[in-house]
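Proteins fold. Shown next:

***
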Amino acid sequence: MSEEKDGGAGKGSTLTRQGSIRRTSLLDAAEAVLVAKGSDASLRAIAGEAGVRVGHLQHYFPTRADLIKAVLERALERSLERLAETTGLRMVRDDPSAIELPAGQANPDEVVGVVLAEQEDPQLVRLYVEVWALAARDDEIATVVREFYRKYVAHVEAYVQQGRPDWPGEFCRARAETFVALVEGAALMRSGIAGSRSSSMDAQLAQFAVQLLRD
């Protein structure tokens, strides 16, 4: 009996790993097509990029909105992982209020540095730009994007509140919303899509972003 149970558990574990690998490859394909085709990033195009049938893709992600939600969630998870590796600051993706600080305090300069460093990746910036464009035309995708930024703001709010417990919650949230708006808008300029980047702009941006977190 125990051997049967162990065998069943092993098979289930293998299937879970295989499903995770397939899901990852589908998300990789979705990112590639979104960056390359933007609004033409249909499920058919993404399935073609992944080398699978549309039905196989829809087994994991029934709609394009479901797929984009997963793409954004993975992007947020990777951001939180980079933040933890660099600053020691650990936050839970599915519970924005959960925050674990390293000994002492997570330096806001380091936190801002990690956030802005992500804009050094032109493919990542282009991915967000294309998702924003899709959200402007598709209500389902707009709902997904709003939820993504709600979580993003909640993470920043938790960090601000931890560092400045004397600030009212509403004020911390306003700071967090302004921080996200500043950083996300800056991506268009710093990537060269909507303007040119300069070292003086980078310095001012970092200064204002840090001030929103602490001062």
